[in-house]
Amino acid sequence: MSVFSVRDLKVRFGTVEAVRGVSFDVGAGKTLAIVGESGSGKSASLLAAVGLLPPAATVEGSVLYHGREILGARASTLRQIRGAEIGFIFQDPLSNLRPLKTVGDQISEALCAHRRIGRRQRRERILELLNDVEISNPLKRLGDYPRHLSGGMRQRVMIAMAIAANPGLIIADEPTTALDVSVQASILDLLRRLQERHGTALVFVSHDLAVVSDIADKVAVMRDGVVVEHAGADLIYSAPRHTYTRTLLGAARLGGPRHYPQSRPTGSGEPLVEVASLGRSFISRQPVLEDVSFSIGKAEILGLVGESGSGKSTIGRLIAGLDRPDQGTIDLSGETYAKAGAPTNLGGDLRRQIQVVFQDPYASLNPRRSVEAILSDPYVVSGERDRAHVKTQVRQLLADVELPETVLSRLPSQISGGQRQRVAIARAIALRPKLVVADEPVSALDITTQAKIVELLRSLRDRLVVSLLFISHDLGVIGELCDRVIVLEKGRIVETGPTRRIFEHPEHDYTKRLLSSMPGGRRQTETTSSKAASYVN
What we know:
Layout: E1 4-13, E2 16-26, E3 31-35, H1 42-49, E4 57-65, E5 68-69, H2 75-81, E6 86-89, H3 93-96, H4 103-112, H5 119-132, H6 138-141, H7 151-163, E7 169-173, H8 181-198, E8 201-206, H9 209-212, E9 218-223, E10 226-232, H10 233-238, H11 243-251, E11 273-280, E12 289-296, E13 301-305, H12 312-319, E14 327-332, E15 335-339, H13 349-353, E16 354-357, H14 361-364, H15 371-381, H16 387-400, H17 417-429, E17 435-439, H18 447-464, E18 467-472, H19 475-481, E19 484-489, E20 492-498, H20 499-504, H21 509-516, H22 529-534
Parallel strand pairs: 3-8, 3-9, 6-7, 7-8, 13-18, 13-19, 16-17, 17-18
Antiparallel strand pairs: 1-2, 1-4, 4-5, 9-10, 11-12, 11-14, 14-15, 19-20
């Protein structure tokens, strides 16, 4: 008998049908992956199934947990089930962990919410859970706050809370999306081991078929609130039947990039950006960057890759003039604008020549201003007073980033994540900079939207002759977009070279480890994206 069985589930928000007749099952010790783009209804289906949607939502259908109907059950009944029998792992642990409570106290709450347990037993169980999720030195971590932990460690704490009461089912909603490849691989391995040890059923929600390829027994593919294909994982990856499934497989990076950038002539003359012997430290910490030197050519896309804490974003902030180095210098077109012991000099024309695209477009765009106002700001700040000319420029920006003019009157919350990132990119290129620093610009987007943004960045580079420093933990994206790659480990460059050479013939052990952690590597080579694309014909 299935542990969790959903039949003909329907969810409406007013007149909008978010979920339309969804059905699926998952058995003990098995993993069901629910895959689809943002807005496909994945999360809405599971939140509805366990009674976590707001009262305004209308939910119909049947949800059985160990044969017991729980859809429409009393709130008190659902509270007893959630956490004790059904555990949850959410996408962003920093948002779901309380910042002012220690790790030990938060796991203790998860334990005590459903049973009485003595202080000594509770402490022993918390240490056992931290050991289970492979957090080193668990005794020390009891008193740590979430801010003291890396992203991967915070996610392990979330997993410890989810398994605290030994639930029969775990629902993991995009639990690895914001993590680097090696941490992502370790979290997937951890979930597999815990599942094998306890026989737990797992529902794993993701937008990426490459990620779930390493963990799923069955896959349900959702689009527009409907399950368009539901089959065993081997069948999904070897012989997908639905066109949409083939599209997702075509966008997935099973074990590596789908293709490499076309070779570009390096050109002659001085590089656009020169970074020499860069160093940066923070109070009471080890150096974040040590003796980092590299250059960025004109119209080059340089990829910067490494695990969380390797110093990638620190380099981006230094080059963008948002921080200043403790050692070394940074030059733009032969002019030094950042050096140790002096304020960053990015005034006037230099400031216009370097722009930034951040990871989360919703956080970096003013939520109370329309898209038109956001895109008008660069021109107004630079001294443009002709409103008609500004409107013309804004419309040209929309054309550059392939957005319809209908978005101009909307707020950031009224457009999709991919559209928000296009607005952020449009704002960055408004004054035609020479360099754009793109810090994890696609990590929060679903796989098909990622592919569109990558293609957009490549097109903008060619049309505007702009250079990009592209910072990412996603090696698949780096491999498809960047002309050259720098691999960063613990603040030091361990390897650099042309993209194809780095991916096909890595020299450093750390680079090899990162590449071996890429999702989808366990699938056989005949299920690569090129094979999947052939099914279209």
